[in-house]
Write a structure and sequence with these properties.
globular; 380 residues; single chain; mainly alpha
Length: 380
């Protein structure tokens, strides 16, 4: 990807690659921990130490990784629209984002629900043809985007941006700590309020609206980052301070959630955090959005300073990243069904599953790019 200055920004490619790896690992975490929504989860009891480690990992990732992908998408959306114009930009996004999402909804998702995950024991209840007829006939296909909800949401954001009135250029504004704090506070307030209506664990057509305040704000943040050249001019000292704050944030979360993960009824202990007029919901909204800004700013600076290069092997991985995003889910399910049979702590199962799922997903992504029709599908 080329940054605003026109030079190849390898650190952006590498950061995007790292986020895709985290996507695969988070789905491995959900498979083992059961904390979140996924096709198949391990029903075995989990010890509190394993749960604490998985909560810290999944919570830390959820606080920023998808938001950062929206930020980067917004950054390059503005660059693309300025270069191509509104009509060509919109057509391109419809193809590059809409077609992969449609493929997932029509082909991959019903295959996974019935054959791989056998959700709710559906194979014993009906044949595949009957299942597919119901899947499409009842409109379930509309919520069948799986991980490709991201592509649909990004497509919507891009189309709204393309239709919006053009913004004046104006003088560039530097990105400051005060602005970072304002972003965190705004996202925290919006997240808390949205979760009064749509708490954690709810979705609308597979869109978890409880996280969408951040996604919208980060997309706009990306647009502003391109306009003001923030990726290139981001203060390294600010990035380092943000990473220190994020490290402290993990300690804070661990202290707060230990009573939850060690509770005999974890679901009941966790309920106040999901949303509502509770201090727990306010804490989680504030914590996640502060962490989101700190980790996003910190990693942008860190990758720019330490990971602004590539190699043939790394370039192959970055070129396969979107293919991995589209096609990793079936392999996480297959491997997850094998790994959860291990007699081991949940954390050990997660480490084994992640160690298998990441290379397998990238091998599949590499293979997908060798198939002509599929290669066109994952060009984004």
């Amino acid at each position: 990807m080329a940054a605003a200055g026109g030079q190849r920004a390898f650190y952006v490619d590498n950061l995007r690659l790292a986020m895709i790896v985290l996507v695969v690992l988070v789905h491995c975490g959900v498979t083992v921990s059961g904390l979140g929504s996924w096709y198949f989860v391990d029903p075995a009891p989990k010890g509190p130490l394993s749960l604490l480690a998985l909560v810290l990992f999944q919570g830390g990732c959820q606080s920023f990784f998808m938001g950062l992908l929206f930020l980067l998408a917004g950054y390059f959306a503005r660059a693309s629209l300025l270069k191509k114009g509104r009509a060509e930009f919109s057509r391109g996004r419809l193809v590059r984002l809409g077609l992969p999402a449609l493929f997932y909804m029509v082909v991959l998702n019903p295959f996974m629900l019935y054959w791989l995950a056998n959700v709710h024991g559906i194979q014993a209840q009906m044949g595949f043809g009957q299942f597919v007829a119901g899947y499409f006939g009842t409109g379930h296909v509309l919520g069948g985007s799986g991980p490709l909800w991201f592509a649909l949401a990004l497509l919507l954001f891009c189309l709204i941006y393309a239709a919006a009135p053009a913004q004046g250029s104006g003088p560039a504004r530097p990105f400051s700590g005060r602005l970072a704090l304002g972003l965190a506070l705004f996202c925290a307030a919006g997240t808390f309020l949205v979760r009064l209506k749509w708490p954690l664990g709810t979705s609308v057509l597979n869109m978890q609206l409880c996280f969408f305040t951040q996604y919208v704000v980060y997309f706009v943040w990306g647009l502003a980052a391109h306009k003001n050249d923030w990726l290139r001019t981001l203060d390294p000292a600010l990035s380092r301070r943000c990473l220190v704050l994020a490290a402290a944030g993990f300690v804070v979360l661990g202290v707060v959630v230990w009573p939850v993960v060690s509770s005999p009824d974890m679901a009941a202990a966790l309920a106040p955090y999901n949303g509502g007029w509770t201090w727990q919901a306010a804490f989680l909204a504030a914590w996640s959005e502060a962490m989101g800004v700190c980790l996003s700013v910190g990693l942008l600076g860190l990758f720019r300073e330490r990971a602004n290069g590539t190699s043939p092997f790394v370039q192959n991985l970055t070129d396969s990243a979107f293919a991995v995003y589209v096609f990793h889910a079936p392999f996480v399910v297959i491997l997850g069904r094998l790994v959860v049979r291990l007699e081991a702590p949940a954390l050990a199962k997660f480490l084994v599953l992640g160690a298998l799922a990441v290379p397998v997903s990238f091998a599949v992504g590499w293979g997908v790019r060798k198939v002509p029709l599929l290669r066109e599908l994952v060009k984004a």
